[in-house]
Amino acid sequence: MERIRGTRARAVVPDALVPASPQGPTSRVPALDAAVRGDRPADSTGLASTARLASTARLAHTACLENTAQPGTALEATVPARTVSGDLIEQLRVLEEMKSAITALQARVAVAFDLAQRAEQAEAGVPAAERGQGVGAQVALARRESPNRGSRLLGLAKALVMEMPRTLAALQSGQLNEWRATLLVKETACLSVEDRCAVDEELAPDTGTFDGKGDKAIVAAAKAAAYRRDPRSVAGRASRAAAERTVSCVRRRIP
After folding, report:
1. N or C, which terminus of the chain has less Cβ within 10 Å?
2. 3-class SS letters over 108-135
3. Where are the alpha helices (DSSP H) in the chain?
4. Which residues contact 18 (CB under 8 A, 6 or more apart)?
5. Closest by Cα among 54, 134, 139 to 99
6. Residue 243: partners with Cβ closer than 8 Å, 6 or more residues away
7. Number of CB atoms found within 10 A of residue 172's CB
8. pLDDT value of residue 154
9. Burial class (CB in 10 A: 0-12, 13-18, 19+), 166
10. What is the pTM of this model?
11. How high is the pLDDT of residue 238?
């Protein structure tokens, strides 16, 4: 845990990473920096909240160690088993919230890295059409993923930071994990920026909309909201998915 805290303390996150207001931007242009600007203090990048989660996890871990009853000791007779298990499950919950908060911070850092790379390439005289190439591969290398997966993670980060600030806020607060945030991004991918921002505002995941809900319920809610905004695009996406669905058979030789 000290290692995580030390690494986080050394991280430098530009002020440009502060997400926009819940209304969000309404255009993908001119540049990504216009989509991630904001007026809130630098603390809103999530570093402080992530540090608080780490501190809470350390306390839970310490309490667990202190309250663990060792066989043959007086503590075994005085500390109920439910206290130990309660501390352990609380630690799991806090660690899960930390994972979500770190994922939100990674999204902001990935967008900042993309902006920095594009600015450096522009100064080097790289043509506008070629700027940003290789960013996904570098994100993949940093996150120990495949280049294809790195490009998808960068796309997810851009969608969250630029177009779905309330989903990003829910991720940062631990109300959503990375997978469920990905589901919301995926189900709104066919919408325009304006409609996607409107769906994000309607669903308002940062208000606890999906507390206690499963993946299917989240997907259904996102699909319904997207359909209300743009039925044609949602129907077209569904028809394309059905057309691309295939079943293949592979012959295997039985020894």
Report:
1. C
2. HHHHHHHHHHHHHHHHCCCCHHHCCCCH
3. 2-10, 32-36, 47-67, 74-78, 81-123, 135-142, 147-158, 165-173, 178-187, 193-203, 215-229, 231-244
4. 36, 37, 38, 39, 40, 41, 42, 44, 45
5. 54
6. none
7. 26
8. 97
9. buried
10. 0.67
11. 74
Tell me which residues of the chain have a pLDDT lower than 50: 1-45, 61, 63-65, 67-69, 74-75, 79
Question: Do 234 and 226 touch, CB atoms closer than 8 A?
Answer: yes
Please say whether the beta carbons of 98 and 54 come within 8 A.
yes
As given in the structure block, the two tokens for residue 43 are 């603390």
Question: Taking the CB of residue 128, how many other CB atoms lie within 10 A of it?
Answer: 9
List phi, psi (to 5°) of 241: -65, -40
Read off the amino acid at residue 31.
A
Cα 204 to Cα 84: distance, rounded to the nearest angstrom: 36
**Longest Cα separation, the chain:** 73
What pLDDT digit, counting tens, does each position of 82-130 carry?
689 999 999 999 999 999 999 999 999 999 999 999 999 999 999 999 9
Q: How many residues does the chain have?
A: 255
* CB distance 172 to 104 below 8 Å: yes
The reply to whether omega before 30 is within 30° of 0 (cis) is yes
Going 189 to 16 to 173 to 4, the CA torsion angle's sign is positive
Please say whether the beta carbons of 163 and 24 come within 8 A: yes
DSSP label at residue 189 = T
Q: What tokens appear for 153 in the block?
A: 């993670």
